[in-house]
Design goal:
Number of domains: 1
Distance between the termini: 29 Å
Shape: globular
CATH architecture: Alpha-Beta Barrel
Helix content: 25-40%
CATH class: Alpha Beta
Number of strands: 16
Strand content: 15-25%
Structural class: alpha/beta
Largest sheet: 11 strands, mixed
Number of helices: 12
């Protein structure tokens, strides 16, 4: 659900945000890293949104010294045998440019099938095989380095079927990864966090054994249709990583980090508005709200008035990211993945390099 809901809110102009950033003071930033030397290790991946492809692509090239993998959000599974491309999917200019910069290209396949359709695919042997073949056709269609599966409708599977569906999905991933490895391609799997109240459908142990990387979407602790609050916090990361590292080697984990936020109307059940870091900062300065860090979550937030209604914005920036990285270090997780390229505070790259 995390990635699907973001797309609905991001197909809009960002001109106001850009203008507001010009000629105004920025929020407090991180100190520069001391000294010069070898470039930082390539421990960062990033999703590349197709709806803002050129800007995200140029952003990736600017940070090629840190990026080891880019996953263009290019494909959507429609059925067992059909995987369709989004606008710009398979751009050879983007693929070749990223490869020239030394970055692997592992496109993401997402899905938004009708309820129960994906479960029917993963729990049927013949349909699973058909779907693996469809995914391999995508991998062979370009000079890709592998594939990333982001199948989020698996996550809310109900009590009666979750064990069967979870096992079926793990089998699909195991079969797919084996076929990819035979082609010397990478197998990347994106999952939601497994906590005491969420994520039980994911068989982390089997998925982690099969895949080269398991990406955890560690954001939306508070999300668009819920109550206002931080997207992530150190305590939440503790819970996520304590469980994840007990089932998956830390070297295989990529912790998903947010570069965005949500803007809620206080007391309303309406969905929050999506804001990138740039949009959130531009809004904060436009309404004259002070820059504040929540002492518990270590993330920025502010409130403002609009049309006589109170609104509150929680988002993530480089300072908040830097405050969360010690939890990753504690559990030996060196790899991270950004949702998404072009959303983030530019200073986050320095935080990732030094943190």
């Amino acid at each position: 659900m995390a990635h699907r809901q973001h797309r609905r809110h991001l197909r809009r102009a960002r001109v106001i945000a850009v203008l507001a950033l010009c000629g105004t003071a920025l929020a407090p930033t991180l100190p520069s890293s001391a000294g010069h030397g070898a470039p930082p290790p390539r421990t960062v991946s990033g999703w590349l949104p197709y709806w803002d492809q050129e800007a995200a692509y140029q952003n990736a090239l600017r940070h090629a010294d840190q990026l080891h993998t880019v996953s263009p959000f290019w494909y959507e599974a429609k059925s067992a045998g059909r995987v369709a491309g989004h606008t710009g999917a398979g751009s050879r200019r983007v693929i070749d440019g990223l490869h020239k910069a030394g970055i692997k290209v592992v496109p993401t396949v997402m899905e938004r099938m009708r309820p129960g359709a994906l479960a029917a695919v993963v729990t049927d042997k013949a349909r699973r095989a058909q779907h693996v073949d469809a995914l391999l056709r995508i991998v062979r269609s370009r000079s890709y380095d592998g594939i990333d599966l982001d199948y989020e409708s698996i996550a809310p599977t109900g009590d009666a079927a979750y064990k069967k569906v979870g096992a079926g999905y793990a089998t699909l991933v195991t079969d797919l990864c084996a076929r990819l490895h035979a082609l010397r391609k990478q197998c990347v799997i994106t999952v939601s966090p497994k906590t005491r109240i969420s994520g039980r459908v994911w068989d982390y142990r089997r998925l982690g054994a099969a895949a080269d990387r398991l990406r955890i979407m560690a954001y939306d602790q508070h999300w668009a249709s819920g109550s206002p609050g931080p997207l992530a916090s150190p305590a939440w990361y503790e819970e996520i990583l304590r469980r994840a590292t007990a089932e998956v080697p830390a070297a295989k984990l990529e912790m998903g980090l947010p570069g965005y936020g949500w803007d809620w109307q206080v007391g309303s059940r309406d969905r929050a508005r999506h804001v990138t870091w740039k949009e959130a900062e531009a809004l904060r300065r436009r309404v004259g709200a002070p820059y504040r860090i929540d002492p518990v979550s270590k993330t920025p937030h502010f409130t403002y008035e609009e049309g006589g209604k109170s609104r509150t914005v929680w988002y993530q920036d480089a300072r908040g990211t830097a405050a969360h990285l010690p939890v990753l270090r504690k559990y030996g997780v060196r790899h991270s993945v950004l949702w998404a390229l072009g959303f983030e505070d530019p200073a986050v790259w320095r935080a990732l390099a030094t943190g």
